[in-house]
Structure formats: structure tokens, C-alpha cells
Amino acid sequence: MPSVAVKLYSVFFKFLLKHRLQNRIQAPPEHSDAFGVTTRPEESVAAANPSFTDGVATKDIHIDPFTSLSIRIFLPESAVTPPEPRSNPNHNNAARKPRSDHGSASTRDSNSLPSRRNSYEPSTVMHREESMRRNSAGNGVVEGLNLMSNGVYRGYSPAGDNRRKLPVMLQFHGGGWVSGSNDSVANDMFCRRIAKLCDVIVVAVGYRLAPENRYPAAFEDGMKVMTWLAKQANLAECSKSMGVGKVGSGGGIGGVGGGVGGIEFKKPDAHRHIVDSFGASIVEPWLAAHGDPSRCILLGASCGANIADYVTRKAVEGGKLLDPVKVVAQVLLYPFFVGSVPTHSEIKLANSYFYDKPMCMLAWKLFLPEEEFGLDHPAANPLISGRGPPLKLMPPTLTVVAEHDWMRDRAIAYSEELRKVNVDAPVLEYKDAVHEFATLDVLIKSPQAQVCAEDIAIWVKKYISRRGHEFSY
User: Fold this and answer.
1) Residue 261 predicted with pLDDT over 60
2) Residues with active-site annotation
3) Per-residue pLDDT, 208
4) What is the DSSP code string of 71-110?
5) Measured distance CA(274)–CA(441) in Å, rounded
6) C-alpha angle with apex 265: 262 to 266, nearest 5 degrees?
7) What family is this (predicted)?
8) H or E stretch including 172?
9) Which of 44, 121, 43 minimizes the C-alpha distance to 78?
């Protein structure tokens, strides 16, 4: 059974959420607000931190001038730290010593990152001496590689094409359509954990909330971010091919002198930046330099899992229209699926912890337009007929469920349907766990949260590895 603390917090959580949902339902209908909101005033938010103080830098970007849609990028420090080369007779013995996650003074510098398993691609970056590495306080650069100023990461000056790129994970938070945010304290902690364990760039999506913006606003926002990611990749390649922005002594980006953040570039003129040839605000340097959109993973929690599944379906239908973005896998954490015919868990666990069935019905009434409300709506029930594309075209799908979650059985049923058409679709069920146990860990301190994140990393790495499916599950 869940701990006493979880039970007490669940009672308090449900009381507050039910009160807020009822107030919004009883409130007079408001005029449609296309701009919308992505976070509530009562939400505790974490400020963006671009300094790698805990191994992950974050940046907030408002990507749509017509709506409140925004993203928060989580960039792990491994993206800007040159990896150790593989064994080479020309390197000294210290460079060839194996490294472990725990490390020691003899195998790594005290200010450098803990080492990682080389699981994605062979090292193509030339070996650099430890003395040339950027320290954690950001007091230097690596021959123009890391652009730091007072510990704040400003961008990246890649050395030709010999740079290591990380997969990109789009993350959709939970909150029953009406609450939660991509910059909340709980979501910030979860995304940092996932970014470090999976060694990916996490793009947390701040989609518009209901009832200000009902269906299909949140789903459309998910597709807007996917399209934006594709544009970023294409613009970055276009900028690189145009060869704008030589890196010289005292040179800047795109012909602007003085460097970035007061740091001068010291690479030869033969090396060029990935730069923005069309305006400073178009190409996002963190993604242009460090992201590999051809290895894209979608992850959603609770109602965010519904959005992730929708975006995945649209990506499958769109095919090459989203090139070079390719969805290689998706992770659905306790999806917010319902249906008109109740499952065993929907009957037995109707009054489960945090999000019980009556409260979820209120959330669906706030999200779906009145004329479209129904438990078999395509946004609610993944198993209704005629919901394209065919399941056999879906990418590998990992489903995470909690023992004490009333929505558990329908998520398992969806996974079973995927397996019937030979899609890799395992289910991980965590005993004594409740809905949102992994994403609300900052509040409920669930012992299963860290284990769940590690399990996700093991499975995801099968599909983002450059060297093949070296991980088994």
C-alpha cells in the first residue's frame, strides 16, 4: 500500500483540485481566448537556469507569437563536454583508462562531469587535454567549443561536423488538462532526471490549458512544437550550407564582432558556426548545435500521454512532411484514457489516489466542448474504431502504469492491441504506486520514481543508440 504521507497528501490534493474544477465549471462561460494560459497562478514554478549547476541547463522559449505556447529546453552538460576517445595507441595511458559512473581523482578531473556509458555513437571529436576543458564554473572555453560567460551557457561553436549530437525528447506534462505546467517545480525535476539518465535533450511543452482553450488546442500545440522542431533542423542545415559566420580571432556570429557573451572565438577561419542567416531569433542554437531530430522520442504523463500519442499518430500519418524529424519511440506514463464501457480497474479503483474517477470526469467536461463530450471521444479512448493510422504503423511504445490507478487497465489494453500487430509495446507496472508517482516525486517522494526513470532510460536507449539495439529489456 502507498505510504501514510502519500495518502494524506492525496486527500489534500483531491480536495483542492476538486474545488478548483468545480469553480471553473460553475463560472460563467468566458469569451474564447485564443492566446490562452499555460500555467496557473497557484502553480509553483522553477526559474530557467542556463548554468549547468546540476548538470542540466534550461532555457524558456515562447515559440508562437499568436498563442501562449512555450517550451523549456533541458540540455544535459554531456552535450557540451567532449567525450573521451576510444582506446588509441597514440594517446597516453590516462586517456585509455576505463571510466566508471562513480569515478575517481585518477580518472577524471574533479570539476568535470561524471562519466557516461558511450551508448550512442563512436567518438568523432579529437582528444583534448584536460587542461583545455571548460570547468563547471564556466571560467573558460575549449578553443571556441563552449561559449560561456559567468557560468551561463550562451551557445555552441561547433568544430565542423565532428560534434556529438543528442536525441531530442518532446515531453508533455500532466494535470488533467486544466493544471500543471512545463516549468513547474515537479515537472522541472522530472525532466532534469530524464535528461541526465537518458542523455537526451528534453523539450518540455507548455501547451494551452482548459477551459480557456478546449479540445483540440492542446493537441494542436503538440503538433506545432513538432513542426517547429522540424523547421529548426532545416533552418540550421540551411544556415550551415550557406557558410555564414566565420570564426576568427575576435569574430562573432553571423558577422557580428565581439563573440558571444564577451567571449572571443579562437578557431581558425576554416571552421564555421551553425548560425542564423535569417535573423537572430529564428534558429535556436541549443537545438541546432546539439539536437538530432532524426532520433526523436515522445514522452507524456497522464493527459500529456494522450497528447504524445496523438502527435505520434500525426507524425506517422505525415511521414516525410516532418523530415528530418523521425519519431523512433514513445513513452506513455499512466495515460489519461477512459471509455464508455468500464474496465475492471475503473470499477474497483474508482476512488483511487490523487485523480479518482469523479474528478477526472470533471476534467474531461472542462476539456471537451459540450457538443463533443463523450467517454469514447477520440481524445479519450484509444481503442475506438476508425482512429487512424493503423496500429501496426505506430513506433515502439512503452507504457507505465501504477497499481493504484483507476486508469491502469485501459492503458494495458491499448498496449496489448499494439503487441497484437507486432509493435514493441511493453508494460511496466509499479507496485504500491499511484497516478503521477514518477512526475510528482518532488512532492510525494515515491521510492519507485527513480527506478521508473532508470527503467525508461534502459528501454529508450534501445531506439536512440547509434550502434544498434545493444540494450535488452
Assistant:
1) no
2) 302, 405, 435
3) 97
4) EEEEEEGGGTSPPPPPP-TTS-HHHHS---SS--TTTS-T
5) 38
6) 140
7) Belongs to the 'GDXG' lipolytic enzyme family.
8) strand 166-172
9) 121
Question: pTM for the whole thing?
Answer: 0.80
Q: Which three cell numbers stand for residue 424?
A: 514493441
Written as nine digits, the cell of 316 is: 506517422
In this structure, of 137-151, 183-197, 351-365, the range with the lowest mean pLDDT score is 137-151
Out of 3.40.50.300, 2.40.50.140, 3.40.50.720, 3.40.50.1820, the CATH code matching 4-78+163-242+284-464 is: 3.40.50.1820
Q: Decide the pairing of beta strands 327-333 and 397-402.
A: parallel
Angle between helices 357-367 and 4-26 (to 10 degrees): 40
**CA dihedral defined by 70, 156, 292, 100, rounded to 10 degrees?**
-110
Burial class for 87, CB neighbours closer than 10 Å (0-12, 13-18, 19+): exposed
Q: Which of the given ranges, 95-104, 130-139, 196-205, 282-291, has the highest pLDDT on average?
A: 196-205
Angle at which helix 447-464 crosses helix 185-198, to 10 degrees, equals 50
Going by C-alpha positions, the residue among 290, 301, 293, 315 that lies closest to residue 164 is 290
445 close to 5: Cβ distance less than 8 angstroms? yes
Residue labelled with grid coordinates 474496465: 343
pLDDT score of 271: 36
pLDDT at residue 266, as a whole number: 42
Cβ proximity of 174 and 436 under 8 Å: yes
Boundaries of every domain in the chain: 4-78+163-242+284-464
Which of these, 13, 63, 38, lies nearest to 281 by C-alpha position? 63
| Number of residues that this document lists for the chain | 473
pLDDT tens-digit profile of 194-231?
Answer: 999 999 999 999 999 999 999 999 999 999 999 999 99
Q: Are 127 and 90 in contact (CB under 8 A)?
A: no
- Is 319 a residue whose pLDDT tops 60? yes
**397-402 and 427-430 as β-strands: parallel, antiparallel, unpaired?**
parallel
As a whole number, the mean pLDDT across the chain is 79
% of the chain surpassing 70 pLDDT: 72
CA 140 to chain centre: 29
Contact 218, 180 (CB under 8 A): no
